[in-house]
Amino acid sequence: MIRTRSVTDDMIWVGAGDRRLALFENIFPVPRGVSYNSYLLLDEKTVLFDSVDQSVSRTFLENVSASLDGRSLDYIVIDHMEPDHCSVLEELLSAYPNAAVVGNAKTFVMIEQFYSPLAEARRVVVRDGETLSTGRHCLKFFTAPMVHWPEVMVCFDESNGVLFSADAFGAFGAMAGNIFADELPIQQEWLPDMRRYYANIVGKYGAQVQSLFKKLSGLDLKTICPLHGPVWRTERDITWLLEKYTLWSSYQPEEQKVVIASASIYGNTEAAAERLALELAGLGVTEIEMYDLSATHFSYLIGEMFRCSHIVLSCPTYNGKIFPPMRHLLDDMRELNLQSRTVALIENGSWAPMSGKLMTAELAAMKNMTVLEPAVTLKSSMKEEQAGQLFSLAKQIAGGLKRSL
Ligand SMILES: Cc1cc2nc3c(=O)[nH]c(=O)nc-3n(C[C@H](O)[C@H](O)[C@H](O)COP(=O)(O)O)c2cc1C
Ligand SMILES: [Fe+2]
Ligand SMILES: [Fe+2]
Predict the structure, then answer these.
(1) Order of all β-strands in the sheet with 5-8
(2) Which CDD domains does this one have (predicted)?
(3) How many whole angstroms from 282 Cα to the centroid of ligand 1?
């Protein structure tokens, strides 16, 4: 049974969604599922752009076969070798024995690593900036190293302005019929999962995303076809998307907002974080987000930290160290290159509070983090006499947010 949609008059979305997957990459929760996008161009030559994860291989192979409608497949373009896009490659190669694989030198090394070497006759090696004509269409390839993996490239169709963008511009979430951004509630439903996807998957590589933008800067992008999530095809949506990516890849906050990352064993540190939230609210700050780190997957916090200008880290001491859920979060903040945020700290300890000092040291290893002074230190629980200290932190945060109030 065919389950496809046309993207242009001769190019078809032949991807599929997986709503059963609990953890993408076996680490990121995907309660809204995930889509694996693949596209088929029916020109004088037929071209398949990337493929899918094995979980949806059956739907995908049926879609490709039905869309080819008896024609042979001439090319398989591999923009990205990660298994979520390549685990059906061997089946494709045997189902379509005349198809040649288009990739760069690094692509073929990875094919050999994951699978087996590909015969010379089936390889079309392209370099940065090279083109391939398929009849009416001319495809231009741009390498995009580390816009997730080293072998990544994107492909621009010069004849109609379609960009096959690999993992860039992707999102968590499976689509249902409506595959185009202009058909979907992007701001309300999709943006948090777009941001969480970007921050956690590509966030570390902001500089590489910016280099890719430079390469693409002269191009008239009419449609963006990523490997996950919605397809972008209106000028308004594409402008909005590029603005978001410009902010994310340069580690600038999207909003003047506060996110409170609360770690707590018994609830005393959490109580102080809550009091800080109340002080902030009293100063007119709205939309304060607070998450319990033991109950919330770190990927959601990372997403929120890419969004918000101000961060509160609130955490007890644990065996002389930072309570582990906060340690994990700080590791990821550093790993993903998060930078240029203002951070307030609340620490706790019943005999030798250390978490504040240790969190400050972790933040010092990140770029351009402003830590508000002084951190609030609790000895087991917050006493009303300390309210002034929290109020002073709240005032500093609210002062920094003033522009948007
Ligand atoms: C396993 C464990 C290890 C701890 N290690 C330390 C420590 O090294 N230094 C310290 O001052 N407090 C330590 N504590 C005590 C907590 O940091 C302290 O009770 C704190 O007030 C708990 O805050 P909470 O109510 O937000 O969980 C430890 C507690 C636990 C359960
Ligand atoms: Fe990837
Ligand atoms: Fe991917």
Answers:
(1) 5-8, 11-13, 39-42, 46-49, 75-77, 100-103, 123-125
(2) flavodiiron_proteins_MBL-fold (cd07709)
(3) 30
Ligand 1 pocket member 265 (CB < 6 A): yes
Q: Where are the domains of the chain?
A: 5-249, 259-397
C-beta of 253 in contact with ligand 1 (< 6 A): no
pLDDT per position in the chain (405 positions), as tens? 999 999 999 999 999 999 999 999 999 999 999 999 999 999 999 999 999 999 999 999 999 999 999 999 999 999 999 999 999 999 999 999 999 999 999 999 999 999 999 999 999 999 999 999 999 999 999 999 999 999 999 999 999 999 999 999 999 999 999 999 999 999 999 999 999 999 999 999 999 999 999 999 999 999 999 999 999 999 999 999 999 999 999 999 999 999 999 999 999 999 999 999 999 999 999 989 999 999 999 999 999 999 999 999 999 999 999 999 999 999 999 999 999 999 999 999 999 999 999 999 999 999 999 999 999 999 999 999 999 999 999 999 999 996 644
- HSE-CB at 404 with a 13 A cutoff on CA atoms is 16
Distance of CA 281 to the CA centre of its chain: 31
Pairing of strands 34-36, 321-322: unpaired
The highest-level CATH class for domain 259-397 is alpha beta
Bridge partners (DSSP) of residue 49 are: 39, 77
Report residues near ion ligand 2: CB below 5 Å.
82, 148, 167
Domain 5-249 identical in fold to domain 259-397? no
- Please choose from 265, 292, 377 the residue to mutate so as to test ligand 1's pocket, defined by most ligand atoms within 8 A of CB: 265
| Residue 314, both tokens | 């609130």
Distance CA 93, CA 258 (A): 50
Indicate the fold that domain 5-249 takes in CATH: Metallo-beta-lactamase; Chain A (3.60.15)
Ligand 1: residue of 260, 318, 347, 378 to mutate (most ligand atoms within 8 A of CB) is 318
**Cα of 136 from ligand 1 centre, angstroms:** 68
Q: Residues 144, 212: contact at Cβ < 8 Å?
A: yes
Which among 86, 92, 84, 91 is positioned nearest to 21, based on CA atoms?
A: 84
For ligand 1, say whether the CB of 188 is within 6 Å of any of its atoms: no
d(CA 382, CA 353): 13
Q: Establish whether residue 350 lines the binding site of ligand 1, counting it when its CB lies within 6 angstroms of any ligand atom.
A: yes
